[in-house]
Design brief:
317 residues; 8 strands; globular; alpha/beta; 8-stranded parallel β-barrel; single chain; 43% helix
């Protein structure tokens, strides 16, 4: 296979993985992951959310829920590397007009605006604000599996007319299969065909298809690919970075350094009791195309009555 130079790999371990441990990663963990990502050839590292401090108390979360400029700089300095720094801003859950510096004063390179499809107008307002500040931007449309064709087409048409750099297809519920992930990818790609915008893919692993769906959409032209170390992320987790780097043929990506990080930091993290990854309860919510909150609750209560849980989901479907 030929190398595709348009491919960009984004590590979302701290942001999506932070949903598993309340963003309470040690500075050592984050610094070593940063160094590992640089050594592994990862293109972007997402440090976490820029959540509103008026809505969320800083004392109740780890620092990567808020991504203060000084906290990021404590890890990366001025980031004298080719890897770019990203943060996520949720529509309705951030104070974007007050909490972001102009790009020339910040070590952050990219702001990823996350929204549901009915929030596209608000997302566009944020995207244009960040663009004016000098940042690269993405729009991550969540739970796209629950949107209808007309909604998707309208949202993409609106975004194609903005200054957004990347539009993400997000399988929030892990309900997509390669055949419909690829069909959606083609719709997204067609929407930006006459622009310089790129399409990204963010997968969840409820049906053990995060990696499969990622490389399937890649094969149709999707170029921004999200992954996390050992798939660490909310509920069933995400596409595993080690699988993705092992698949990509570009020699810039280095799997060896990532494996050393897994040995030293990820295996102990799991041993400490941090829980994520495929399990039956997440498969059920993926099959039914619904938010995993009930499965997360099932996991937290350490239940193992899978058949009864599945029956209750069907009864409330």
């Amino acid at each position: 296979m030929d190398v595709r130079n348009d491919i960009k790999v984004l590590d979302a371990t701290i942001r999506d993985g932070g949903l598993c441990n309340n963003f309470e990663f040690t500075d050592e963990f984050v610094k070593e992951l940063y160094k590992t990502n640089v050594a592994s050839g990862v293109d972007y590292m997402e440090f976490g959310y820029k959540a509103s401090k008026n809505m969320f108390k800083e004392s109740e979360f780890g620092k990567w829920k808020f991504c203060n400029e000084e906290d990021i700089r404590a890890i990366v300095g001025d980031n004298p590397t080719s890897m770019k720094i990203a943060v996520m801003a949720d529509v309705g859950r951030c104070d974007y007009k007050t909490d972001f510096l102009p790009k020339n004063e910040s070590v952050i390179d990219m702001v990823r605006v996350a929204c549901y499809i009915h929030q596209i107008p608000a997302a566009i307002e944020m995207i244009e604000w960040f663009h004016a500040l000098g940042y690269e931007t993405t729009c991550n449309i969540m739970a796209i599996s629950q949107a209808n064709t007309e909604q998707v087409n309208q949202a993409l048409s609106m975004l194609a007319a903005t200054n957004v750099d990347v539009i993400y297809l997000v399988d929030s519920y892990g309900s997509l299969y390669p055949e419909n992930a690829s069909a959606l990818a083609k719709v997204y790609l067609a929407a930006v065909e006459n622009t310089d915008k790129k399409i990204g893919f963010h997968a969840h692993n409820n049906q053990n298809l995060a990696f499969a769906n990622t490389i399937e959409t890649l094969s149709y032209g999707v170029s921004f690919l999200d992954a996390t170390v050992q798939g660490m992320g909310r509920g069933a987790g995400n596409c595993a970075m080690e699988l993705l780097l092992g698949f990509l043929k570009n020699p810039k990506y280095n799997l060896y350094e990532l494996l050393k990080f897994i040995e030293k930091y990820m295996i102990p993290l799991k041993a400490q009791g941090v829980v994520w990854g495929y399990d039956l309860q997440y498969m059920f919510t993926g099959l039914l195309n619904r938010h995993p909150r009930e499965a997360i609750d099932f996991t937290g209560k350490k239940r193992d009555d899978y058949s009864e849980f599945y029956k209750s989901l069907l009864e409330n479907f």
